[in-house]
Amino acid sequence: MTDDDQTHPNQFALLRQRRFAPFFWTQFSGAANDNLFKFAFTVMVTYQLSVAWLPPAMAGLVIGALFILPFLLFSATSGQLTDKLPKTQVIRFVKNLEIAIMAVAALGFLSDDVGLQVPLLLACTFLMGLHSTLFGPVKFAYLPQVLHERELTGGNGMVEMGTFVAILLGNIVGGLLIALPGVGRTCVAIGCVALALLGRLAAQGIPQLPATDPQLRIHWNPVSETWRNLKLAHGNTVVFRSLLGISWMWFFGAVFLSQFPSLAKEVLHGDEHVASLLLVVFSIGIAIGSLLCEVLSRRHVEIGLVPLGAIGMSVFGVDLYFALRGLPASSLLGLAEFLARPAHWRVMADLALLALSAGLYSVPMYALIQLRSPATHRARIIAANNILNALFMIASSLIAGALLGAGFTVPQVFLFTALANAVVGLYIFLLVPEYLLRFIAWVLSHVVYRFRVRGDVHIPLAGPAVLVCNHVSFVDAILLMAASPRPIRFVMDHRIFRVPVLGWLFRLAKAIPVAPQKEDAAAYAAAMAAAAQVLREGDLLGIFPEGAITRDGQLQPFKGGVAKILAQARDDDMVVPVVPMALTNLWGSYFSRIEAGGAMVRPFRRGVFSRVGLNVGPALAAEAATPEVLQGAVAALLAQHPGE
To answer: How does it sit in the membrane (predicted)?
Structure first.
């Protein structure tokens, strides 16, 4: 918990603010319209029309492929347009385009000439895919321009929740309207045009924003620009691997969503209402997981939730296989009969928790990409993400189809996907250790301890800074990681690297080992040089100036290493603020030393969920930050909330 949790309202308060609410309802109406139109069209071709060249079994595949094709063809161009033009202008143009497309689609639904009707609606499907392609980069590039870092996770959670609720409502309403006897197609036509008009009305309220790269020269060749976008995204390792992680989530989700009809009919022996129920459960799970991200992240972009989500996706995916494997054969079940069988509740629980985990997995990744991408290139990087998402979703269809064609069952396909998710997740987290480290920090600060942070607004969101803290336990660095919205490179006593597990973690975090100058002058000089380089690169540097973990719980005299680092920064003409911090109530816990013995010798020394804290003070200028001044600042922070 942080002070910010009490002084700022939660993410739902954004719906009362002009910078967010009109945008939210604009994207909500667009997602709902996409799915109302597509699902109504699919049902119409499947059940109401007889089209020789488009058999019912192929209708869903063709409509889905036409909708996703523009993402491959035009994402690169849409990313350029979003970076070059004011985002409000792009949004309103897209909404005007949606009105025109839906007007043509209305003519298609109302036509009695099947030879004209189906080709016209297929063309509208492609154009609605283009509409979504143009809106995609705006959707995620808009948020970092109007939301603070502390609001970014909550804002993304709201957008993700809104998107899946809109998808769900669009499918349900589209299916209900098209099935109305006699007036179904008319109602769908009216509904599509009405949603497009409501979306344009909402877009009118979006505030004007300046373009992020107005001098950008547009390259219209989609092939070369797609490659250029992917190379641009590849330039930032963490961002690019996060793009791959999000694309994998869409691969994973597409496997499950595409098989719901087959799962309902062939495995669960349910009717079409059961298939709809599975979609409802999955969508609600995603929505809840997306909204939970702000609650679990202390209002920062907490990528430690990503491994938690990945674990849930695999665990509940595997359990879903076992829940499905033993179901007995039966006649076709209606919704009430399906819900009356206890075994089916385990299936729905697995689906809901799997989807909730996917929400925990995806929202922090989206927020991280927005936060770490340069503003001038952000939309093009989001466009690269849309391209990768489309490719991964196509691959999921091909691979799932190949497995089913080879004789594997739907539950087995789910099992293979869940196991593959574990392998992919482990691979990504080892390639980008920041995810794993933040996960461990999140667990320590939420499960092992009740961690309370005060004053974390003083940790700078950009630029170099030195974080100075007292040294109480072997996990001090991990707790500071949990409190910071940015990665921290620590200068740490070389002896801590010999501690099993913790030493591996700190090496993974690229911590800088330092030895006393009298003991190893070369190692000391190398540590000072590495610390200076961290600041030159604009990153956060964490230092424990006492030089070692306290043995009596009291603050020890600060050594001069921090002064040498700051002197080097001044020589390099860098402005480096120094942020004092104080860990409180950590002395006497399992990971700290005690006067009668060493650390980590008696678990649950203070019970479980023991309360610890971190007080963060205002930054000091480097010129004033002598060891004595810093020690006094940390001591004052320790005295602010004794015993907390």
So the answer is: Multi-pass membrane protein
